Amino acid sequence: MRLFAGLREQAGWGERSLAISAESPPDTPAGLWRQLGLGETVPPQVRVAVNQAFAALDQPLQPGDEVAFLPPISGG
Length: 76
Prior knowledge:
Layout: E1 2-3, H1 5-11, H2 29-35, E2 47-50, E3 53-55, E4 67-70
């Protein structure tokens, strides 16, 4: 689980490992957001990536997946 920029500062951490039990159904990025105490819903401007590819908030996760929440990025 990775957070970047303002999200990292807001949560007070940038990277965490989270065990997903093979006996329970895979979670989703939205479920991880709630489980980690980041809020009830992922703000619409935040993008999610699973295994370094953009993904939907309801994409099922598998053991070993890397999840990143990316805040809006500006620049030129």
